[in-house]
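For this section, I looked closely at the sequence of one protein beside the tokens encoding its backbone, which the following lines show:
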Amino acid sequence: MKAPKHTSSDTKAAESTIGGAPSLDNQAERLLEQRLYERVLNSYTNHLEKRKRRIRMWRSAAIWIGAVMLTGGGIWSSVSLRNKVTNEKSVVQVFSSMNSTKRICLVDSTIVILRPHSTLQIGADYNRVDRHVMLEGNAFFEVKKSKEKPFIVRSKHLETTVLGTRFSVNSPTDGGEHSVFLEEGKVSIRIDDEQHFLAPNERIVYHEAIKKWEINKLSDVNLNMQTGALTLDGVDFATLRRCLADYYGISLIHLSGKATQVRYKITLKPQTPITDIAALIGTISARRTVINGQTIIIK
């Protein structure tokens, strides 16, 4: 039997069928190219995302560093800083907790000791045109002298203006007695459009309840700017009571006249708890003391 013959048309058809099918090598090359393209695209996308994250991180760091530089970086303990807008003016607020004291060095080398549970508000443009701060609570100031830029502390009822001096301001948020005590230099106090001047060791008190003010003379009172320690060198009871109110927000009440007949020589640190203060007063006065909130009662 003869083998079947293949015609030329059958051969061409077979060649056409084989040639029309894509080869395996071409498919592999295209698949490899596609995978390489996807890798390059993913790598570029990841690079862009990392770059965006770095930019956001550096922007946040720049804002934080700028806020710290405004206060000179010399802050004791932990300080909360936040930017906000008040009357379209950027400010930085420094807070002190209930049991901590903050030491702040402003850009002009003015030193502020912020007492517990107080807030100091500083303009972002501080010392460029003026030197104004806002205070809620209690703070001590040692102001760098500048005739061109008076230092002004605004509080609820008082506006204190100085050129360079050492003084403290007490402006409680819950009312009571608002006061300024001058240790060194000269200050101008404005109360309800009336201007008053203090000499060293004088204290002006504004009684919010009766809307009256008075000026008292204090002596033998010293505040250590490095440690924040308050030293009273043989002061009378009235001076002790005023200093506790100004520096610690503590009220002092006596139920016995004997407590007013002794002199008090005592040194208090910013972190001294009220229990230790009451114990010291009790030892010096030889009387029993009782604590009621932020009030020490001498019996």
Q: What stands out?
A: The longest strand covers residues 131-142. Helices lie at 8-20, 24-70, 237-248, 274-285.
